[in-house]
Amino acid sequence: MKRIILLSLFFVFAFATIATAQTKVSGIVLDKSNQPIPFANVVFKGSNIGIVSNEDGRFYLESPNTYTALIVTSAGFSDKEIPLEKAVNYNFKIVLGEAEALNEVVIFTGKTSKKNNPALDILRKIWERKRKNGLYQFNQYQMQKYEKVEFDMNTIDSAFMKNKLFKGMEFVFNHVDTSDVTGKTYLPIFINESVYDVYGDNKLKKVKENLTGNKMSGFNGNQQILSFVKDLYSDYNIYDNHLKFFDKSFTSPLSKTGIDVYNYVLKDSAYIDKKWCFNIVFYPRRKNELTFKGDFWVNDTTFAIKKINMGVTKSANINWVKDIYIEQEFEVENDSVFLLTRDYMMSDFALNKKEKSKGVYGKRTTLYRNHKFNIQKPDKFYKEEVNFIDNAVYDRPPEFWEENRFEKLNKDEAGIYKMLDTLQTVKRFKQLYNLVSILGSGYVEFKNFDYGPIFSTFGYNEVEGLRLRVGGRTYFGPNDPWRIQAYTAYGFDDNKFKYGVSGKWMVDKKNRVIISGGNRRDIEQIGASLTTTNDVLGRSFASSALFTTGSNGKLTNINLSNVSVEMEVKKNFVVSAGLSYRTLESASKTFSLDYYTTLPSATNPTGVIKSDVKQSEANIQFEYMPNRKTIGYGVERDLVDSPFSHFFVNFSYGLKGVMDSDFAYEKIQIFYKQPIIIGPLGRSNIILETGKTFGTIPLGLMSVIPGNQTYFTIENTFSNLNFYEFVTDQYTTLQWNHDFGGRLFARIPFMRKLNWREFIGVRAVHGTISDANRAINASGLPYNAPEKVYWEYNAGIGNIFKVFRLDFSWRGNYLDMPDAHKFAIKGSFGFYF
From which residue to which does the signal peptide run (predicted)? Predict the structure, then answer.
């Protein structure tokens, strides 16, 4: 959701001067019946500069050089030369006639053949050599990398410029330019530059990037925007079978499975930089799949790519993105080594895919130079720093950028820094920026203090009735070494105030040693999750739903205090230890946590019953998250939204007698989550949780299998279980969820246009309860454990109206239990690409 809300900030602003390019041409390619010809090849005559028309036959082409003619070709049609009488030529209508019979030329129309196709013969040779080309030819490599990310408001017109929204900000429109890819007017609104030293070892399969300089316009220190940029633009290798953009897996045109999803046509051959190359055009076989259309030039001896241009097809099942365009250029080193020197990617973000809709361009340009090879570094060189802190890289002088920019900024890019610095002083801009910031972070910003989160202001449950909550946190900047958070809440039915306060302080920045502590007195839904953490102010499931599918009165009054210390001993490996003290008692007259302190006997038939729990506990936790990417270096950091594995282990020890603590026990809990991207088939998530408590404990300390009595989907809960339906002291749960990303629906003609996405999943749990724990139960709640594995399965439809998902869940067994939900429908909202 953060990404879409930040995009909305860019949708707010906009920019109309003519660019300095010498030749511009746009138009549409049609057949004789006036039907668009998709994926036609349009090039300037006498050059290798060209583009492939989109699915509607439209194209735009621009060059800083002067050209006098276009060559337009398409499979099954005669080539056509179009004279250009002036430098700027818009709205050409180009009509192609059917091809005549040609000698020794094979014409492919529609779906190309997989047999006797020379383009596929070349493609197979690319597969054979792809691990022997470029950087892969060397044991080690070094190079410099320059990256420039820019966001531009596009499709700017006079009516937009006159909008009252921009009163006082009219000066920004002096920076309007024209895209050399789409021909649309655009206004630059953000730019970020970075310079890196890159080192790689193909034997160790290690890569290290050292950031040496970073410069951001207008929004210095805004981690939300930096995180957003990192989310959007992940690194990729054009030779890989699948390319990941916007959390989607696209089939590469160089993929070994490309034959099944692309048509390939050998269109041309020519010398490029004194190397003879073949030109192959590719376009998708089916609509709605995550594919590209475009062309590439490949060398005839090394079968290495010299140049590739490609754009995402308009029908691809991806939200908020109207277009993605990619260019890569390779230079020849030592006569036979082709090295990537320029990588350009442009995305057109918009609320819809209509041609005239306004949106935002996101452009990333990456340049490489100064390659060196076979300079070996010791293994420890590639060890990542736990917390990279070098403020100097964010404050480089102008001389640094003059020396380290691989290409000069154009006049519009150079003006962005000054324009946005000025914009920060405009009151109207500040108001708009603050509004979007509130929606993105959930906090209202004041000086050194944030109020929120605003989305937790209202809640409801059967004990408190309507619940109001106010809170906030200290905030001096995104990299604060310490932070304090607090809240208070009031329930109108129980007429009680609740509160929570916590603080954390990073005492060692290099190794991220953090001391934290806090106290919370509130009402909680025990058993909302199995795996516990030290977060005192974690989400309160007692008040998170305004409507439920059944009674949610099984609530507990909790008074929890804790202190802990954690350390990131190596990158993404965190060790923490803590002490906690809690008291638990029922918050409802209809729910009991009673337990026997003395069991009934012949001399004492009723035994001795206690209603509250006092418990001191010590714990140590290990958390490992390989491939996790973070932004910032403060006590709290933002995560880059990319999949990573998550492994968590918690050991807890009940300290009987410490502060009148009631129980001695040992508990171990393990959590493991593994995302798996299965190429074009989507992404799976596998989640395993297991745990066991050694010792005798009451209901308040048992492991309750998490049910879900809301109308909304909650991760790691069982949709068909009620609260406290299963109670255990030893458990194992396994979940598998898979997102097909719309691939199945894309094969059904009448469903293609809906762009819905398919989800399936299975959840299972096995658990037991010891005889000793059953014996002390005096709560009146029957202890049921899933000694025979309980399971449920679900299927869902997502991307409904782009923001809604429905999950249908079926109970697999235990159908005769009281109030058993055999079938459930849950929904969820979210903004997804």
Answer: 1-21
